[in-house]
Amino acid sequence: MNATVIGKPIKRREDERFLRGQGRYVDDLRFPGETHAYFLRSPHAHARIRSIDTSAALAAPGVLAVFTGEDLKADNVGSLPCGWLITDVNGEPMKEPPHPPLAQGKVRYVGDHVAVVIAESYLQAKDAAELIEVDYEELPAVTETARALAPDAPKVHDEFADNCCYVWEIGDKAATDTAFERAKHITRLELVNNRLIPNAIEPRAAIALYSPGEDRYTLYTTSQNPHVIRLLMCAFVLGLPEHKVRVVAPDVGGGFGSKIFHYAEEAVLTWASRKVGRPIRWTAERSEAFLSDAHGRDHVTTAELALDEQGQFLGMRVRTTANLGAYLSTFSTCVPTILYATLLAGQYKTPHIHCQVTGVFTHTAPVDAYRGAGRPEATYVVERLVEQAARELGLSPSEIRRRNFIPKEAFPYSTPVGLTYDTGDYEATLNRAEELADVAGFAQRRQEAAKRGKLRGLGYATYIEACGLAPSQIAGSLGARAGLYESGEVRLHPTGKVTVFTGSHSHGQGHETTFAQVVADRLGVPIEDVEIVHGDTDRVPFGMGTYGSRSIAVGGAALMKALDKIIDKSKKIAAHMLEAAEADIEFDNGVFRVVGTDRQVTIGEVAFAAYVPHNYPLEEIEPGLNETAFYDPSNFTYPAGSYICEVEIDPETGKVEIASFTAVDDFGNVINPMIVEGQVHGGLAQGIGQALLENCVYDPDSGQLVTGSYMDYTMPRADDLPSFQIDMHGTPCTHNPLGVKGCGAAGAIGAPAAVMNAVLDALRPLGVTHLDMPATPHRVWQAIQQAKQQQAA
Amino acid sequence: MYAFNYHRPDSLEAAIGLLRTCEDGLFLAGGQTLLQSLRQRLAQPSDLIDLGALPELSGIRREGDQLVIGAMTRHAEVAASDLVRQSIPALAALAAGIGDAQVRNMGTLGGSIANNDPAADYPAGVLGLGATVVTSERELAADEFFTGMFETALEPGELIREVRFPIPRRAGYVKFAQPASRYALVGVMVAESAAGVRVAVTGAGPCVFRVPAMEQALAQDFQPQALDGIEVPADELNDDLHASAEYRAHLVGVLARRAVKAALAGL
Ligand SMILES: Cc1cc2nc3c(=O)[nH]c(=O)nc-3n(C[C@H](O)[C@H](O)[C@H](O)COP(=O)(O)OP(=O)(O)OC[C@H]3O[C@@H](n4cnc5c(N)ncnc54)[C@H](O)[C@@H]3O)c2cc1C
Question: Are residues A627 and A650 in the same domain?
Fold first, then answer.
């Protein structure tokens, strides 16, 4: 590799346009004759729609059309599909209720889509929507995960016996139960993984156009995976020929998973653009984003860890109820199963694990992948258990982990929950984290804080993640209804400049820089000569997009394959130009050379020859230098890390402050350390946000979203966070060409448990043993009061 | 937002006259509350009368032992004013702790107290310092001005011109922020002056209120420990997602002690 490009903290090339306001987001695009859509949403959590009268709205100024679920039904518009089939323990497929883009007969959560108004201006559409008369018969609702299966819980879908979508399990139950019988000690926890609202800076937006001359649709949308949206929308919802639909996801301002899914608004706008005959635009208001973006997490779990007298883990038993919301969003079903329970081994050699997951419907917005998707939930369970067990057994959090780590000689290591980790060195990251966090000096810092009346605590979390989604065969055997490869195309122009097309999608991650580094390095051309194109189904070969920290591990690998093809072909051309045998041509840093001589041609000269084939062996080689590759990984990648959080708590108010946060990650090889650090920072902010601040709350009686704005939903702000201490210790991935693992979700995966373990460490002297996220001042204060009362009793 | 008529009068008389003549008008100050409720379609005024072009409503001056702040003075100006920082540092600190920089650059004293949000900071400052609210019609003591949740003694069409703050011997304001909005979950202003000690609490109840028991204790001994054992009953306090009434009652005690400390430290 060319040491001057890979591994260098090159500044993000895309930031120039973002910082100058020159980005082109969906809402920035303008089209002649465009109209505006406003979606009328359900004010009720659960209601039967007796009738909808749109006549007054249709007569309102500027209104072009009003559509309801009945109009879509009359036009045979289908249901928004779910991309992952989970099979129930009884062998039956999961329950899959219809998910109409506009409600039919019933609304099932506050914010559910009832009608769309299309008008000359947005305000006209919104005004007219107030004139739509919907006669609702209000029905009781259930929003709480733990109550969804109560015998008296109102049913979300009348066609099913109850609100259970599936009961799914993994692991050897009998062997795990036996391990528990042999145990000297069992640690047991009841945990709630709080529901989160994603809150990307850019709200979802879409613009749909129909061109009658070409009989062709174009949808501009805020998506992390435009090809997936095109496929789902064409094949399942609108029944449109795929070649007649173009989906473009231009600059996208953050997604965190929430922009993976195919949403109702995309399908409705595309469908309506032909009916109305003019472009239609829609941008979510922030309040709509709160109500209708797919939410994240929302688990209730009972977890047990069996240990022997030395603190060795013998077995783990986990029972989780996962809230799926009212309808099945695109990947909702695999997040709390495949992406969750398979990670319960963590970094440990726990021999037996059994996990049962019950997916439930409730009268809430759909729940789907959110930064980390299942893996933060798994890490939270494992790391809360491990730290609790350490306390109960009188071991240090460090020692209990070291006694149970998978040793570095044991790789590749197969876990009892279906994964085979390729590499890792968990001791090394923990050593480095303890050093950086100055664990040795903690006792003194705690004493010093006590003098100021403050409680100081230290908490650990070591996480494992499965990234690089995914080997298609494995995914398929687990119920995926799609492949999970990635595409890449490398186009060398006659002048030696390079355009690269990737099926990955950048919505803040910096692909335009990282991918350019990979290409510049492999071809030996200046990075300025490389342009990365993504996000347009008309330009880019079919790709699966960006989520699950897959871009560099799968998309980068696809590019490496395409680059190999380019170099292979270039060698043939160079051999001809240099009048040598192909076997004698070596390639290094942009130059093809006859081995052991000074006869050489540059890659630019080869490209020119390929496109100007005046003197060219046309019978042996085609002209042109344009190669496409698809890469399907042979395994997941397994980033891992050790996080240590130190908190200080004001016992009078219950306020928790993060005194320091240390993260040492193993991401394998690192292409751009500055971008990777940025990803870690963002992930940590979100993880700390989940632990201390963020909480989506529905009123259990009315089903209204209580935390429907920033007045009540707490986002992490810069002053909530310390300056992070970050380091990396890489063991290169063994099965992809770049040796990379992925870094996008790490912080959000490891941070919550580290923070909560630190909070509990600080509160333990007061007798507090349990706390659920988020550890708000109010909750911490209440826990302290309860502990005081218990001790007094 | 619904459509409305917008006016930007250049005299106080015109502003008041406009409000009287239009159907359902509202004054517009910094817009930090009003525009949000318009955007959310929670209010539908026929006319907005922007007070932004009336320099007589803006500014900070000292008159004898009083600090006079115009209704249109922005929070950022109060926070940065040397005059405020020297004469009532607690008031400068209060203003500096409102919202974020953008809110402080737009939001005004008059708008804040006219709105009388139960979690706003200024009401605690105005009541705790025993200020007088000067309107287009009359002068109102703080004790009469704040009458209930989002309610004041202002009559329809009455405009706040300025607020007169007597300069105390010492004062302290401490706020515990609601985590999401960062308004006051509870905020306590403690002030000691020749007229006695005043303790005003915002955020905790439906409307800013005084705590006589604390005032008496501090009049005896202006020290944090003088407040030990004095509890504010929780029954009438706010209870919501962010804090129970008990927690708020507890915070009143904690913050009052801290406010006394701040006053003693001259912060
Ligand atoms: C994000 C955010 C955070 C905030 N955080 C805080 C906080 O931490 N603490 C806090 O205290 N406040 C906070 N605020 C409120 C803000 O500080 C303003 O003080 C408040 O919004 C009202 O002032 P304004 O000048 O914006 O008034 P406007 O919104 O313009 O008006 C409010 C009301 O007062 C009336 N009014 C305005 N001026 C007069 C006048 N001179 N006479 C009679 N009636 C008048 C208007 O007609 C209207 O009904 C926050 C606001 C935002 C948007």
Answer: no
Residue where a domain stops, chosen among A580, A599, A631: A631
Phi-psi region of A182 (alpha: psi -120 to 50; beta: other; left: phi over 0): alpha
Q: Are residues A639 and A627 in the same domain?
A: no
Answer yes or no: do A336 and A439 share one domain: yes
* Residue list, ligand 1 pocket, CB within 6 Å: B 26-34, 51, 71, 75, 98-99, 103, 106-108, 110-112, 114-115, 120-122, 159-160, 182-183
Give the CA distances from residue A91 to residues A85, A162, A169, A663, in Å, rounded to whole numbers and listed in that order.
12, 18, 11, 42
pLDDT (mean) for A571-600: 97
Say if residue A68 is in the same domain as residue A216: yes
CATH of B5-51, one of 1.10.150.20, 3.30.1050.10, 3.30.43.10, 3.90.1150.10: 3.30.43.10
Report the complex ipTM: 0.96
Residue A156 located in a structural domain: no
Cis peptide bond upstream of A774, omega within 30: yes
Residue of A778, A780, A789 to mutate when probing chain B, most B C-beta within 10 A: A778
Provide the pLDDT for residue A413.
Answer: 98
Residue B267 has pLDDT above 70, yes or no: no
Interface touch A653/B241, C-beta < 8 Å: no
The answer, for A721 touching chain B at a CB cutoff of 8 Å, is no
- In the chain, the amino acid numbered A111 is G
CB A547 within 8 A of CB A370: no
Domain extent at residue A731:
296-414+422-469+635-792
Digit-coded pLDDT (tens) for B113-172: 999 999 999 999 999 999 999 999 999 999 999 999 999 999 999 999 999 999 999 999
Does B242 reach chain A within 8 Å, measured CB to CB? yes
Confidence of residue A285 (pLDDT cuts 50, 70, 90): very high
Q: What is the mean pLDDT of chain A?
A: 97
Residue by residue, DSSP assigns A110-137 as TT-EEEEEEESSHHHHHHHHTT-EEEEE
Please state which CATH number belongs to domain B58-264.
3.30.465.10
pLDDT 10s digits, A421-461: 999 999 999 999 999 999 999 999 999 999 999 999 999 99
Q: Rounded CA gap, A757 and A532, in Å?
A: 42
pLDDT in tens, A232-245: 999 999 999 999 99
Contact between chains at A706 and B242 (C-beta distance less than 8 A): no
Question: Which domain CATH number covers A588?
Answer: 3.30.365.10
Are A319 and A249 in a shared domain? no
Residue extent(s) of CATH 3.30.465.10 domains in chain B: 58-264
Chain B residues with CB under 8 Å of A652 CB are 254
Give strand ranges (E) for A600-721: 600-602, 626-631, 640-650, 655-666
- Closest to B254 (Cβ–Cβ): which among A652, A707, A782? A652
In this structure, what CATH number is given to the domain that contains residue A84?
Answer: 3.90.1170.50
Residues of A in contact with B242 (CB under 8 A): 712, 776, 778
Structure tokens at A375: 């893996």
State the span(s) of chain B assigned CATH 3.30.43.10.
5-51
CA pair distance A782, B244, nearest whole angstrom: 9
- Whether residues A353 and A450 fall in one domain: yes
Strand spans (E) along B12-53:
25-28, 47-50
What are the tens digits of pLDDT across the range A472-511? Answer: 999 999 999 999 999 999 999 999 999 999 999 999 999 9
Please give the tally of structural domains in chain A: 3
Closest ligand 1 atom to Cα of B135: 42
Looking at the structure, tell me whether residues A619 and A746 fall in a common domain: no
Q: Are B180 and A714 inside 8 Å of each other by CB?
A: yes
The per-residue pLDDT for range B232-260, each reduced to its tens digit, is: 999 999 999 999 999 999 999 999 999 99
Judging contacts by C-beta atoms under 8 Å, the chain B residues touching residue A127 are 2
Q: What 8-state DSSP symbol labels residue B231?
A: -
Q: What is the pLDDT of residue A244?
A: 98
